[in-house]
Amino acid sequence: MSVATRVLVIEDDDDLRDTVLRYLRGVGMLARGLESAEMLDAELERQDFDAVVCDVNLPGEDGFSVLARLRSRSAMRIVMLTARGMLDDRLHGLGLGADYYLVKPVNLRELEMVLNNLLQRSQEAQGQGAREPGHHAATEAGDITAHAPWRYHDTTWLLLSPAGDRVQLSSAEARLLLCLIEQPREVVGRAALLAAMGRPGLEAYERNLDVTVSRLRRKAEQACGEKLPIVAVRGEGYSFQADARIDP
């Protein structure tokens, strides 16, 4: 990559944090480390990061809380690095918006490849979102585009806007979106959406649904320059208010 990747590693184990930082710096990344989330906000104010590698079992604010907080305000890539290998923990992390979940002891080469792949997808999505001046002019072709459907590729978790802009989704975002576009313009209940995301319909996960929808809307608008037509129906659920097509 021509511009060095900026990675923030939040890990309370000093030896592991130093090992990860040393490896990432050795492959050309600009890596910074924190032993807890206490200084996270101050660090993010000082500089921007392309990705965060975050441990779950942190002192004070845990990694799941950090993940939810970051996802509520940022589209940066987030990799959870943790000793927790239980399926429920992995699903919880993915449901909160983690892009990837690695279980300790982690292979550092694998971590490097995960980060490179995630950031390459981000760059591709941003590149696809760039348009020449006059792209949205009212031409005959533009009119056709305006009526084209949103398209979702189920095998790659890729969403395409009517204009052809690409949005790479996380697993939770993909499952949520698929549930909505299978029933376009219909209200899909919150319980059904949580079930589609692999989360039981418990009060503890209600906020998780809203966070995922908010993140998905923001990600689509950043990549496409237009709003994703997911509408909240108060007290019921959400609805995808546009034509959509599901591709294999």
How is the topology of this model organized?
Elements: E1 6-10, H1 14-26, E2 30-34, H2 40-46, E3 51-54, H3 63-71, E4 77-82, H4 87-95, E5 100-103, H5 108-129, H6 140-146, E6 150-153, E7 158-160, E8 166-168, H7 171-181, E9 188-189, H8 190-196, H9 206-224, E10 230-233, E11 237-240, E12 244-247
Parallel strand pairs: 1-2, 1-3, 3-4, 4-5, 6-12
Antiparallel strand pairs: 6-7, 7-8, 9-11, 10-11
Helix pairs in contact: 7-8
Structure summarized in a few sentences:
It is built from 9 helices and 12 strands. The strands form 3 sheets. It has a 5-stranded parallel beta sheet, with helices on both faces. The chain has a 4-stranded mixed beta sheet with strand order 8-7-6-12. A 3-stranded antiparallel beta sheet has the order 9-11-10.
Report on this model:
This protein is an alpha/beta fold and 248 residues long. Helix content is 42%, strand content 19%. It is built from 9 helices and 12 strands. The strands form 3 sheets. It has a 5-stranded parallel beta sheet, sandwiched between helices. Strand 1, helix 1 (14-26) and strand 2 (30-34) form a beta-alpha-beta unit. Helix 7 packs across helix 8 (190-196). The protein is globular, with a radius of gyration of 19 Å. Residues 128-147 have low confidence and may be disordered.
